[in-house]
Amino acid sequence: TIQNVISVIEGKEEPDRYVILGNHRDAWTFGAADPNSGTAALLELAERLSKLQTKGWRPRRTIILCNWDAEEYGLIGSTEWVEENRAMLTSRTVAYLNVDVGVSGSGLDASATPQLDELLKQASKKVQNPDNGTESLYDMWMASDGSLIGRLGGGGSDYSAFVQHIGIPSVQMSIWSG
User: Fold this and answer.
1) Does 71 participate in catalysis according to the annotation?
2) What region holds the Peptidase M28 domain (predicted)?
3) Which of 51, 130, 145, 146 pairs with 106 at a CA distance of 20 to 30 A?
4) Model pTM greater than 0.85?
């Protein structure tokens, strides 16, 4: 049996527009980096968003958090969910953000569809580098690979169904040693 775990935080201003974040939880071995560092990041984000909600906060758009099953066996969990919800997702999804290997090094690695290049650059400038409080993630990125934004293609992770089946702008990010 394949079981995805899906959580929805309804948006306040645009509840019918979705920002989807996902990570898989299955692994070939113990999976410290792939997928558990990404799962830890997703769970931490879920906890922080939950705390904000208890204070009355609601996001502008609906946020959908997805913990996929069976990624290692052919991206089955995410692909089946995308296929099952194709009509809704194509008309409502703004972007999909995938965190497969959340941390496995000390440099920022980012791949995206072209629509999200500028957003990726601008957002990384607003996030502090956790290892150097005087720098941003953007600065770390420039130091690690000179801002090369890779292109999402192939079937490497759960972004595949979003990009290749229904054409959703997507990002894959990690702290990586390449």
Assistant:
1) yes
2) 4-173
3) 51
4) yes
